[in-house]
Design brief:
This protein is an alpha/beta fold. The strands form two sheets. A seven-stranded parallel beta sheet has the order 3-2-1-4-5-6-7, sandwiched between helices. Helix 1 crosses helix 14, helix 3 packs parallel to helix 5 and helix 8 crosses helix 12. The longest helix is centred in the middle third of the chain and has 29 residues. The chain is globular.
């Protein structure tokens, strides 16, 4: 059986599917992962077939405002949709669609009759339990949360209008708006698996049937992989350090953020590791080391804390390692996950990106490292994550879907 996973966005929007795909391959499925060219090495390293989706995600890291985010997202989706039909061949038996690719993939399933399944990294269906992930972290009450959730979906539909129209024309399908397609899926109880932990976001009781929270899909990394020698030496040379990194966010802010990071670390009396990321963080000194990409699973368990942007993948990786966090959310769903970490006690209150100062970061670092309450909360969540098997649950759902 041939499965095609389609995912697009930043590294955190793609990497979890390498682990899911590798698990499906071990179960005997022939798996391809369609994503943008930037992530071809991740896909191939996981032993999966790579298929190229158009669009360039690299410029998205500097986007912070919501209006700017909407404009950038619409341009990205329109570019993405232009080549979306090319990634699926006639032998595809099942299409797995991410949050970003589902509103495009639905048109392919209509045109070809190929079954599909949602594999989302964020909760998108409206609920009274919490506000929509793209509108902020503050609950407005159950009725308002649901209303803003529906509004957020309508805004997302607008992002896909041009791409969907062009794709349907190419597929020789009659016109249908993104909102119409979404309603069809909802009425059909189209199944969606959500790859995050119930420790952070339990399944809302007011969700329709077909929506499940199954646990994280962890990025693939080679079991034989080790940390670089200079990083290993630094870890062994003193007390546990703090990692500071912003992933694919904050492009162009590297010099300012590096200065803030070093000043905060020294003010708090801590050793630190700066992860360059898109921001290009960098610093030198006996008490600080700059690194590139390394597997979170290898590094995080050896840290005192993680300062990060609140991305879903980094948030989950810190919890999995039982390490407390200081979050500095930038945009999109990051304030949501940052607030969830704080709500369970595994992180300090979020520091908005534009409000970040060395003094504020140092105070939060002192709190998260010197006090044990945050570490205990993170450790409790880590025990919960061990009980979940996101890839196994996805495999079970696929078997039920295809056997049926």
């Amino acid at each position: 059986m041939r499965i095609l996973i389609a995912a697009a966005g930043s590294r955190g929007d793609v990497a979890p599917y390498t682990g899911l795909g590798a698990e499906l391959r071990r179960a005997g499925y022939d798996v391809a992962l369609a994503t943008t060219d930037t992530f071809a090495p991740l896909v191939r390293d996981a032993g999966l077939e790579f298929r190229s989706l158009p669009a360039d995600t690299r410029v998205r890291g500097s986007v912070t405002g919501r209006r700017e985010l909407m404009r950038t997202a619409a341009a990205f989706i329109t570019e993405l949709g232009q080549g979306f039909a090319d990634v699926m061949d006639d032998d595809t038996d099942l299409l797995l669609l991410s949050t970003t690719t589902a509103p495009l993939g639905w048109h392919l399933t209509e045109a070809t009759g190929t079954p599909s399944l949602g594999v989302y990294l964020q909760p998108t269906a409206p609920t009274g339990d919490f506000p929509p992930v793209v509108t902020g972290s503050r609950s407005l009450g159950r009725l308002a949360n649901r209303a803003t959730g529906r509004f957020a979906l309508r805004m997302a539909d607008r992002v896909y209008e041009q791409a969907a129209a062009k794709l349907r024309h190419r597929l020789q399908l009659p016109p249908a708006s993104p909102s119409e397609m979404r309603r069809r899926q909802e009425q059909a109880n189209w199944p969606i698996l959500h790859g995050f932990s119930t420790a952070l976001a339990p399944r809302p009781s007011d969700w329709r049937s077909g929506l499940e929270v199954v646990g994280n899909w962890w990025p693939h990394h080679d079991a034989a992989e080790r940390l670089p020698h200079d990083l290993e030496d630094f870890l062994r040379a003193g007390p546990r350090p703090v990692l500071i990194g912003f992933g694919s966010m904050a492009a162009g802010d590297g010099e300012r953020l590096s200065e803030i990071a070093v000043r905060a670390l020294r003010r708090a009396g801590l050793r630190g590791i700066l992860q360059a990321g898109s921001a290009g963080l960098a610093a030198d000194g006996d008490d600080v080391l700059t690194i590139g990409d390394v597997p979170h699973a290898l590094l995080f368990p050896r840290l005192a804390a993680v300062v990060h942007h609140g991305g879903a993948g980094t948030s989950a990786a810190a919890l999995r390692a039982g390490v407390p966090a200081v979050t500095v959310p930038v945009t999109a769903d990051q304030p949501f996950w940052a607030a969830r970490l704080a709500a369970i006690g595994a992180a300090t209150d979020p520091i908005p990106f534009r409000s970040l100062t060395a003094e504020r970061l140092a105070d939060s670092l002192h709190q998260v490292v010197k006090r044990q309450t945050h570490r205990r909360a993170a450790a409790k969540a880590a025990h919960h994550l061990v009980t979940e098997n996101g890839a196994g649950q996805a495999l079970k759902a696929i078997q039920q879907l295809t056997d049926g």
